[in-house]
Amino acid sequence: MLDAKLTVTPTLKLWKWELQNRGKSESEIDAFTAVAVSQVKTYHKAGGKIMFGTDIGYMSDTNPLDEYVYLQKAGLRFRDILATLTTVPSEKFGYANEYGTLRKGMKANIVAFSGDPETDIKALINVRYSIKEGEIIYQQK
């Protein structure tokens, strides 16, 4: 996978959702997801590229928190998780010169949170506002 430069989108939350819908016990779900988390951890530690994804749309649960928590359990720090949402996809899809980082000449896409996701990954779901190309497109009420 590393030699082929594959970018992995693990969608770890999907396993929990599927297994819950199939009536599996919490211990069965925990054991199964622990294997998936371990695989992501191994790939990440080896230098593999991870891109964020949840299969929201297939799943009715639209809250991405579980995915953030699983990625953290896989050894990704906040900045690694941030990269799965920003620089990794922009590089993967050929937009690294326009999106993914904040610097002069880039499109100004910014999300501001209540709290500090560096110290509490759950802050990533507490969006205060979002800016797309310089315009506020969402603001918490």
Describe this structure in words.
The protein is of the alpha+beta class. It has a domain at about 5-100. Helices cover about 40% and strands about 15% of the residues. It has five helices and five strands, in the order βααβαααβββ. It has helices spanning about 10-20, 25-45, 65-75, 80-85, 85-90; strands spanning about 5-10, 50, 110-115, 125-130, 135-140. The strands form two sheets. The chain has a three-stranded antiparallel beta sheet with strand order 3-4-5, with no helix packed on it. A two-stranded parallel sheet has the order 1-2. Helix 1 runs antiparallel to helix 2 (about 25-45). The termini are far apart.
Summarize the structure.
With 141 residues, this protein is an alpha+beta fold. Helix content is 38%, strand content 13%.
What topology does this entry show?
Layout: E1 7-8, H1 12-21, H2 26-45, E2 49-50, H3 65-73, H4 78-85, H5 87-92, E3 110-113, E4 127-132, E5 135-139
Parallel strand pairs: 1-2
Antiparallel strand pairs: 3-4, 4-5
Any key phrases for this structure?
141 residues; three-stranded antiparallel sheet; two-stranded parallel sheet
Distance between the termini: 44 Å
Helical proportion, percent range: 25-40%
For this structure, the quaternary state is: single chain
- Sheet/helix structural class: alpha+beta
Report strand order across the widest sheet: 3-4-5
Radius of gyration of CA atoms, rounded to a whole number? 16 Å
Q: Estimate the mean pLDDT confidence.
A: 94
Topology, number of strands: 5
SSE pattern: EHHEHHHEEE
Strand content of the residues, in percent? 5-15%
Query: What shape does the CA trace take?
Result: globular
* Major sheet size, sense and barrel closure: 3 strands, antiparallel
Count of alpha and pi helical runs: 5
Runs in which pLDDT lies below 50 for 5 or more consecutive residues are: none
